Amino acid sequence: MEQLSPTATASSAQMDYMKLLVTQLQNQNPLEPLDNNEMASQLAQFSQLQQLESMNSNFAEVLAVANSTYANSLIGKQVSFITETETGAKDITSGVVEQVYKEDGENLLVVGSYMVGIEEVMSVKN
Q: Among 52, 70, 88, where does a domain finish?
């Protein structure tokens, strides 16, 4: 399923509203015209929605950069994380982060033969 960007979603909703508004204006009863204040208010709400969605997208980009920077800062440091043994028991494993690998937008730390997500790291040592 293709996901639309938040800005595209707000823009398409605004375009749909404009088409509906033009149709309403073309077919309105001249004795009962549309309220100008209500139209202006709705247009302002669409503008605010578009700005909020744009800000949300920008914050997501900043967060992704911060996560990537943090992951890269762990290279060469010893981290501890939980692994599962062959018997299914939980065990704490430690190792030095050798590199950062990005998969599906997630930063994974390469620690020996393990691929560890940042959220799985329990402790960090120099």
A: 70
Q: Is residue 1 part of a domain?
A: no
Q: What is the pLDDT of residues 55-102, one digit of tens each?
A: 999 999 999 999 999 999 999 999 999 999 889 999 999 999 999 999
| Contact call for residues 79 and 121 (beta carbons, < 8 A) | yes
Cβ-in-10-Å burial (0-12, 13-18, 19+) of 29 comes to exposed
Please name every residue paired with 78 in a beta bridge, in sequence order, or none if there are none. Answer: 96, 125
Q: Mean pLDDT, the chain, as a whole number?
A: 87
Give me the pLDDT at residue 6, please. Answer: 53
Residues belonging to the chain: 126
Look at the chain and report how many structural domains it folds into. 2
Within a domain: residue 114?
yes
